[in-house]
Write a structure and sequence with these properties.
The longest helix is centred in the middle third of the chain and has 21 residues, at 395-415. This protein is of the alpha/beta class. The N and C termini lie far apart (68 Å). The protein is built from 22 helices and 28 strands. It has three domains: 17-40 and 378-571, Roll (Luciferase, domain 3); 94-268, Rossmann fold, CATH 3.40.50.980; 575-725, GMP Synthetase, Chain A, domain 3. The strands form six sheets. A nine-stranded mixed sheet has the order 4-3-13-12-14-15-16-17-18, sandwiched between helices. Strands 9-8-7-5-6-10-11-21 form an eight-stranded mixed sheet. The protein has a four-stranded antiparallel sheet with strand order 19-20-22-23, with no helix packed on it. It is 35% helix and 19% strand. One of its GO terms (molecular function) is ATP binding.
């Protein structure tokens, strides 16, 4: 039986990854691989080679163990405004297997009956999703239930049992699961539906009207399935609407019923298809994108399985093959959450679905009492801020918390122990109980986590907190921290067995493979978890994967003395904020800098922060007009010294923030693309931070203007809030 595995007892924390001898090239480090687990573990005889096999093995081992938990909605409330109860509904592995088989059988039956065929298409419809170099079933392959396979199934909902049911059905019946973003709206749903394309979408009932609205612009879409039951009147009206569009509307219950009796088809690959099932496309995971439309990342079964097995090795011994509970909170449309939940199934664990309401996160945690939780820096930073705020509040409680944190932190750094015999009972038990009281470890992804935040979380929740590095293109994994490594905060840990890593010098940014004490450069990856390319986008694929098969991540990293990876910068002037959103800094600058007030405008983003700030060098004439209007002065534009003093006034900064907010609204920028903090000056930017082609050297600017940047972050939230209250210019 496959299983999680703990670290060896003789683990050497000073040698977590190693450089393979003889692999160095000019301008590059050598190739690094993990030093603890060899890649051979991924293909060991007892390990699954496909997602279907993975689930089947777990069902066989733990048929009656709870797989999914969810809270119920009070019957008097609605799906649009749910009132959640504390009652929990559970479903076992064997129960999910039965439903999976019905859904998969029904999906193939719809294809066999021709109900998914686009009547306007001159090609085979629905089309099999294909990518160069990836094996396919073939347009004429009807060996399974007399139905074609390899086409895509869309799913659009928050995290819930039915989402996973659809994905499991796709894995077992040779289909390609495609998730639509719960929060990005119908425009993105329309783009993905047409780009993939999708002949069927299974969605939460709240999304059905939006799907029918975009349906006239989505010729491939033939069937829409509601995950939720619908009242007879509502169902009748929606079906009538759908029929006018040539679309069949049904509920998931009706779809499952269709997969019974004569339509029932056995799951899994057909005879002789084992190798095909390992290599075929399992999912298209669309990135949220930085500019323009999202890109479809092609991920194969091998990509996903290798990532899952790699992450199953090195877990703390207290959760090895135990009925432990994972709290599902991050969106399943993100590959990070998705592969972690497959990991839970790999280990026979239980997935508890949160309500999806961030304000109820602690409430969900206290009800489900998870052992494992995955978050992003934005969540952790808020918790950290609340704890630090209590420490600074003064009084007896503040003093006791400060003493407890400092004492336990010193003990942890010395011994690696996450518990304390006195302060856990006296102080930290209350904090730990906020997340249910059973946490064994928490992980952070999407963006780097500040070391001080990681340390405080470890101390206050009395559990291991680790972070890793990965992208959609690498199935959310590449490296991961070691739970017992108390020297790891701020790093992304050891290289995973599923991939190798090298750093390529970026001399224009001052990063080289020869840097001391640690080599630095762009992180490049190669391995079983690395995607084969972007769907229908050979240009982007060629730009990301070189001729030797190395994926260039665009992240700048360094490898420390222990063989741990640390992410320190971005190559493409794209920053990922602490909540995981990507921001294209040059694009944002180009919009804001059009205002004549600015002689130069530099947007700064930090992956440990949740918002953007800006450094603005002002035009003297426009600055004088602004200052005179806001402060009631009569300053001339050539009085530069006086202007320099006056633009430091909080009221002037708030006036500029209001101008920027208007610009952002006019250009339909996302909320996370708004500027929330400012530093204003009349002094031109240092030539050290500007290239001959007038581009910013951001890493150098961050050093030269570090005080100004910190000041903007410190003042930003309050001034931005006050600016919103004030009148527009």
């Amino acid at each position: 039986m496959m299983s999680f595995a703990s670290y060896p007892s003789n683990l050497d924390l000073t040698k977590q990854s190693i450089e393979i001898p003889g692999t160095r090239k000019e301008g590059q480090t050598g190739v690094w691989k993990g030093a603890i687990f060899d890649r051979s573990i991924l293909t060991a005889p007892n390990e699954p080679r496909t997602l279907f096999e993975l689930f089947e093995k777990t069902v066989k081992a733990y048929p009656d163990r709870h797989l999914f938990l969810h809270r119920t909605i009070h019957p008097s409330s609605t799906l649009e405004n749910p009132q959640w109860t504390t009652d929990i509904v559970s479903t076992t592995y064997s129960q999910i297997k039965i439903r999976r088989d019905r859904i998969g059988s029904a999906l193939l039956s719809l294809e066999r009956e021709g109900k998914l065929c686009n009547p306007a298409s001159q090609e085979v419809s629905p089309p099999e999703i294909k990518h160069p170099g990836v094996p396919v079933f073939g347009d004429n392959n009807r060996t399974k239930g007399n139905a074609r396979r390899g086409w895509a199934v869309g799913v659009w909902s928050k995290n819930r049992e039915e989402w996973q049911l659809v994905d499991l059905a796709c894995q077992a019946y040779g289909l390609v699961g495609v998730s639509l973003y719960e929060t990005l709206g119908p425009d993105v749903a329309q783009y993905i539906t047409n780009h993939c394309p999708l002949p069927i979408i299974i969605a939460a009932a709240t999304h059905i009207p939006a799907l029918l609205k975009i349906a006239p612009s989505c010729p491939s879409l033939r069937v829409v399935v509601s995950m939720d039951p619908m009242a007879p009147t509502e169902k009748g009206l929606l079906r009538q609407w759908a029929s006018t569009l040539g679309i069949e509307l049904m509920t998931l219950e009706e779809l499952e019923q269709k997969g019974t009796g004569a339509n029932a088809i056995a799951p899994g690959p057909e005879h002789g298809e084992d190798m095909l099932d390992r290599k075929r496309i399992a999912t298209i995971s669309y990135t949220s994108g930085t500019t323009g439309n999202p890109k479809g990342v092609v991920l194969t079964t091998e990509n996903l399985v290798s990532a899952v097995i790699s992450n199953g090795k090195g877990l703390t011994t207290s959760v090895l093959n135990q009925p432990w509970v994972f709290l599902s909170f991050l969106p399943l449309s993100h590959i990070y959450e998705r592969f972690v939940e497959i990991l839970i199934m790999y280990g026979g664990g239980t997935i508890a679905f949160s309500t999806g309401d961030a304000t109820r996160l602690l409430e969900d945690a206290q009800i489900f009492q998870p052992h494992f939780f995955v978050g992003v820096p934005r969540i952790w930073n808020r918790i950290h801020a609340a704890i630090v705020g209590q420490m600074k509040a003064g009084g007896l409680k503040g003093a006791l918390l400060t003493k407890a944190v400092n004492t336990k932190l010193a003990r942890w750094k010395e011994t690696g122990e996450v518990t304390h015999p006195i302060y856990d009972a006296l102080v930290f038990r209350k904090i730990r109980n906020l997340m249910g009281g059973r946490l064994v470890f928490m992980t952070s992804g999407a963006a780097p986590l500040r070391p001080d935040v990681q340390e405080i979380l470890t101390i206050c929740f009395s559990c291991n907190v680790i972070q890793g590095f990965g992208m959609t293109e690498t199935v959310g994994t590449c490296s991961v921290g070691i739970t017992r490594d108390n020297g790891s905060p701020g790093t992304c840990g050891r290289v995973q067995p599923c991939n190798n890593l090298k750093l390529v010098s970026v001399p224009d940014m001052g990063y080289t493979a020869e840097d001391k004490p640690n080599p630095r450069g762009e992180v490049c990856l190669q391995g079983l978890n690395i995607f084969p390319g972007y769907l229908h986008n050979p240009k982007a694929t060629k730009e990301s994967i070189d001729e030797e098969g190395w994926f260039h991540t665009g992240d700048i990293g360094e490898i420390d003395h222990a063989g741990r990876l640390k992410i320190i910068d971005r190559l493409k002037n794209v920053v990922k904020l602490s909540q995981g959103e990507y921001v294209a800094l040059e694009k944002i600058e180009g919009i804001y800098a059009l205002d004549p007030l600015f002689a130069s405008f530099l947007v700064h983003g930090d992956s440990t922060r949740s918002y953007l700030i800006a450094l603005a060098a002002l035009d003297p004439v426009q600055a004088a007009l602004l200052v005179n209007k806001v402060l009631g002065k009569d300053i001339k534009s050539d009085d530069v010294q006086i202007l320099e003093q006056l633009v430091q006034d909080s009221n002037v900064r708030m006036a500029v923030l209001r101008k920027l907010a208007v610009t952002a609204k006019q250009n339909k920028l996302n909320g996370f693309e708004h500027i929330k903090g400012l530093h204003l000056t009349l002094k031109p930017f240092s030539e050290e931070i500007i290239t001959p082609t007038f581009k910013f050297k951001r890493n150098i600017a961050a050093k030269i203007y570090s005080n100004e940047i910190e000041g903007a972050y410190r003042r930003g939230p309050q001034e931005a809030a006050n600016a919103r209250k004030g009148a527009k210019l």
